[in-house]
């Protein structure tokens, strides 16, 4: 079946740098995307979402970009902090579908002080 | 505080011994689901429930049962656990089946010997 994947399993950055985590999806029918953050020993936590009628959405220090042409989305974290160290997942869903979201495997973000 | 709780957080059991992992949410959410998380495979949905007495299979339902007798509770039942069910389990809830973020519990680490 079609799946959501992540380009890089691990991303190491210095504190204060900007981080970019990428995600590729293959189901062109997907129209809702979510980024989750999972810290060690905890459950995934919602960060930001975006619907397919948008190209960009900004939150606090985070921005999600969606490129439907190449089926790619990215999560940008500005001024990365040590507390941002975690695994980041993207997930996709289809409006009106059975709501069995598909999750990527995750990218581990390591922030060095 | 809005939250999803799971119990137990850690469980070691033996093959064939029936067990139940409880899940409860205090947000009056209609939609609840169970996931398992395995290294290299990401989050995979086991079962979901769109409301009381309404449940359906996710991607990996074999070997699991669920029930939804009350809106707030969604227990996961392993009638005859096997070692391949050793995993990290997450319960999640959301307002409805639509495009809304899911809130995850803290996880249950299950080991089946």
Give the SSE layout.
The complex is a heterodimer of chains A (113) and B (113).
Chain A: E1 4-5, E2 10-14, E3 19-25, E4 32-38, E5 45-51, E6 56-58, E7 62-67, E8 72-77, E9 86-93, E10 102-103, E11 107-112
Parallel strand pairs in A: 2-11
Antiparallel strand pairs in A: 1-3, 3-8, 4-5, 4-9, 6-7, 7-8, 9-10, 9-11
Chain B: E1 4-7, E2 10-13, E3 19-25, E4 31-38, E5 42-51, E6 54-57, E7 65-66, E8 76-78, E9 87-94, E10 103-104, E11 108-112
Parallel strand pairs in B: 2-11
Antiparallel strand pairs in B: 1-3, 3-8, 4-5, 4-9, 5-6, 7-8, 9-10, 9-11
Q: Helical segment tally of chain B?
A: 0
Q: Give the percentage of residues in beta strands of chain B.
A: over 45%
What's the total count of β strands of chain A?
11
Overall pLDDT level of chain B = 93
Oligomeric state of the chains present here: heterodimer
Sheet having the most strands of chain B: 7 strands, mixed
Secondary-structure class of chain B = mainly beta
**What share of the residues of chain A lie within helices?**
under 10%
Instruction: State the share of residues found in helices of chain B, binned by percent.
Output: under 10%
Element pattern of chain B in H and E: EEEEEEEEEEE
DSSP summary, beta strand count of chain B: 11
Which parts of chain B are unreliable, with pLDDT below 50 for 5 consecutive residues or more?
none
Secondary structural class of chain A: mainly beta
- Please summarize the sheet with the most strands of chain A: 6 strands, mixed
